[in-house]
Amino acid sequence: MSDDTAYRDFLNEKFDVGQLFDKPEPLAGVRVLEVCYVVLGPAACDYLAEFGAEVIKFEGQKGDQMRFVTPYAYFWKNMSPGLEIENHNKYWVGMHLGHPQGKELFLELVKKSDVVVDNLTPGRMAEWGLSYRELSRINPGIIQLHVSGYGSWGPWTGRTSYDAVAQSMGSLSPITGFQDRGPIKSGVWIADWITGLMCAVAVMAALNYRERTGEGQFIDYMQVENVIRWLDWTWLYTFKTGENRKRSGNRDLAVCPSDLFECSNGWVALAAFSEEEFRGLCGVMDRLDLYEKYADPLKRLQDENSRKILEAIGQWTATKKVAEIEALGNRNGFAASRVLTAADAYDSEHYRQRGAVQEYEDPVYGTMRQECYPPRMSETPSRVKWSSRPVGFDNRYVFQKILGLSLEKIKQLEFEKVIFQWNPDIPSHCPPPDWDGKSGLKLP
User: Fold this and answer.
1) What is the strand order of the sheet 143-148 is part of?
2) What does residue 338 show for φ and ψ, rounded to 5 degrees?
3) Cα(first)–Cα(last) distance of the chain, in Å?
4) Judgement on whether residues 93 and 205 belong to the same structural domain of the protein
5) Are residues 221 and 289 in the same domain?
6) How confident is the model at residue 306 (pLDDT cuts 50, 70, 90)?
7) Is 130 in contact with 96 (CB distance < 8 Å)?
C-alpha cells in the first residue's frame, strides 16, 4: 500500500460520517439566547448550534416571519422551507419579551447564558430594558451580538434592509450580471448567509477573549459592511484607477480562462490560469497557437486577448459533451466540472461521504436530508440533530429544566400570556398533522 493510499485511508477513518454522534461537540456547554427573525440573525445562531451550542430561540405571538416565507407558497407538513434551513438544533420558546414577567424570565436566563443574539430594529432590546448595559450588569461575562442592515449607530441606523437591499448597498449587485444588462442579485440570500457566518466567527472570537480575560463585550455587526468586505480586488482597483468595476457575466476578470461554457449537452465550468494548465487546455483543443501567443497569464488578462481566448474555448466546448470536457481536464491538468443542479449536489456521493450533506431521522418531521456546515473537523464535527420546531415547542424544557420553574408556574405564565405555544389556526405555527403529540419533546 502506498503512503498516499494509507494516508487517505487514515483520513477516511478519521472523518467517518457514521461516527458523527459518537464524538463531542466543540461548543457544548455554550448557551445562546436568540431573539432573531428572518435569516440574518437565525443563520448566525444556526452555525453555532450545529457545532453544539445550546441555542434557545424566542418568538413572539406572530412567530418568525420565515414561517410564511416559502418558495411558490410551498409548505411541507406545515413547515416552510424558508424557516427550516437556518433553524437546526435549536430550542423553541414562545414568549412576550415586552411583558414585565417576560423580561424577568429572560434576565434569569441571561444569568445562566454566554451569548445573546438579536437582529431586531436597533434600540428595540433597549426599549424592553434588555440592552447590553442591563445584561452586562447582571452577567459581566455576557456577549451580546446585535446584527442589522446598517448597525446600531451611524447616519443610516434604523433603515430597513433585506438581502437584496444589502447586496445593492454593499456594491455587490452593480458588479454582478452581464455587461449589456442591468445589475443582478444573487439567487440565494447570500448577504444574510455570509453575514451570519461572520457573526458566528465574531462570537467565537469574543468567547476566546472572555476565556482569557473574563470579560464579555457588545458586538455591533452591520450587514452592508460585510458585503463590502467580500468584493476582493474591487476596492483597491477603484481607489487607484478611479474606475468602477464592470459587470462581466461569468467571466473572471482576474483569471483567464475562467468562465462557464456551453457544451452539446449542458454547461461546464472551466479554468486554466497557470502556464502549465493553459498548455494542457490548448493541447486538447488542438490550439497550441493560443498557448504560444498567450502563455503569459498577465497577457491573457488584457481585455482584447481574454475575449479571443474565451471565444475560442466556447467554440470548442460546443462540440463536446460535459463528461468529455471533465475527463480531458482531469487528464491534462486544467479545472473542468459540470454545473451541478441542487438535486445533483444532494445526491452526490462525494458530499454524502464527507458529511457536507447529512441524512437523519427527525422525530417530528421524519427523514430529512440537509447540508451541514463546514469545516469538517476530525474530533469535534458539526452535525444536524433536529429540524426547526413549532412555536413554543420547548417551553417546558427551558423553563422547567433550565430555570427550575414548577409546572404550576409555567401554566400560570401561559394563562397570563407571558409564554405561549403555536396558534392552531395558523398551520405554519403548528406541528405536522400526523404528529403524535410527544415525539421530539425534550420534556414530554
Assistant:
1) 90-94, 54-59, 31-35, 115-118, 143-148, 217-222
2) -60, 155
3) 53
4) yes
5) no
6) very high
7) no
Domain check: are 103 and 214 in the same one?
A: yes
The CATH number that applies at residue 57 is: 3.40.50.10540
Flag the least confident range among 262-266, 342-346, 360-364, 392-396.
Answer: 342-346
Question: What pLDDT sits at residue 150?
Answer: 87
For residues 253 and 4, the model is more confident at 253
- Verify that 187 and 300 share a domain, yes or no: no
pLDDT number for residue 1: 59
Tell me which residue range forms the domain holding 107.
23-230+386-429
Distance, CA of 92 to CA of 421 (rounded, Å): 9
How confident is the model over 426-434, as a mean pLDDT? Answer: 96
The model's pLDDT over 269-298, given as tens digits with 9 standing for 90+, comes to 999 999 999 999 999 999 999 999 999 999
Q: Are 115 and 203 in contact (CB under 8 A)?
A: yes
Q: Across all residues in the chain, what is the average pLDDT? A: 93
Buried b (16+ CB within 10 A) or exposed e, 133-171: eebbeebeebbbbbbbbbbbeeeebeeebebebbbbbbb
pLDDT band per the 50, 70, 90 thresholds, residue 374 = confident
pTM, two decimals, is: 0.91
Pair 290, 225 in one domain: no
pLDDT per residue as tens digits for the range 235-267: 899 999 999 999 998 999 999 999 999 999 999
Closest CA to 429 of 399, 388, 378: 388
